[in-house]
Specification:
flat, 6 helices, binds zinc ion, Zincin-like, about 240 residues, 11 strands, alpha/beta, 4-stranded mixed β-sheet
Length: about 240
């Protein structure tokens, strides 16, 4: 997530807000910037403006873009509804399939898929316990899949020596990260996605060991190891909100 160096930030409920169909709060962030920009989060509009922007300038900007804001706010609230809730009878979007979560009694904790069901088996399962079990399941899958494949691809590209560590971590909004010290980080929630998507994420971070930016050279390298990456990026954009729990 990008950080914001807002010098002043305040919440207000502007008059034009009432005309919108989705309830939302609005935050104006002032910083050393030249243009005005809008960011929409679930139930929240963020307006980034230059330090000297007047109140009417900000309101005009929002007013002019209200159709787009409305559309984005309802998209965000629809996405919020689709977030994963680990409860018996709920839906889970696992490997691009809609499955029904089924809590099953059993002495041995296990997770498996059967037909259209995603079965979480355990002793005296509660949603909290099931969540923990799902977390362990995904972390285990990630360590068996992502770690060796990231190393293997780095070896193929001749940069395995640049890897100092591979971390698996659930972050707020990111799928992966690569530092100049050679630390690769992957969000284990990606194990809910199809393998083609996971492979793209693995390739993306490994390619950063060679190019630390998102330059043309970087994307050419990604393309050489994952030619369908554009399709996978689109897929992720459309579905990634369903993986967070
Ligand atoms: Zn990147």
């Amino acid at each position: 997530m990008s950080s914001c160096n807002a010098l002043t930030s305040r919440q207000f409920a502007p008059a034009w807000g009432r005309a919108m169909s989705e309830p939302f709060s609005c935050e104006v962030q002032r910083s050393k910037r030249k243009t005005l920009a809008l960011y929409v989060k679930p139930g929240k509009l963020i307006v980034r403006v230059p330090l000297d922007a007047s109140k009417s300038e900000v309101e005009d900007f929002v007013h002019t873009n209200r159709a787009w804001i409305e559309k984005r706010l309802s998209e965000e609230s629809a996405r919020q509804q689709e977030r994963l809730v680990v409860e018996d009878g709920r839906q889970i979007f696992y490997r691009a399939r809609e499955l029904e979560i089924v809590f099953r009694k059993g002495a041995k904790p296990r997770i498996m898929t059967e037909g259209g069901q995603f079965i979480i088996q355990g002793h005296r399962l509660t949603p909290a316990k099931a969540r923990e079990q799902l977390e362990d399941f995904l972390i285990d899958k990630a360590s068996h899949y992502i770690l060796p494949r990231a190393r293997g691809l780095a070896r193929y590209l001749g940069v395995e020596h640049k890897i100092s560590e591979i971390k698996l971590r659930k972050t707020k909004s990111k799928w992966g990260h690569c530092t100049s010290q050679g630390v690769l980080q992957y969000n284990w929630l990606i194990m809910l996605a199809p393998y083609s998507i996971i492979d793209y994420m693995i390739a993306h971070e490994v390619c950063h060991l060679i190019h630390m930016d998102h330059s043309k050279r970087f994307w050419l390298l990604v393309n050489s190891v994952c030619p369908e990456h554009e399709q996978y990026i689109r897929w992720l954009k459309e579905h990634e909100h369903r993986f967070w729990f």
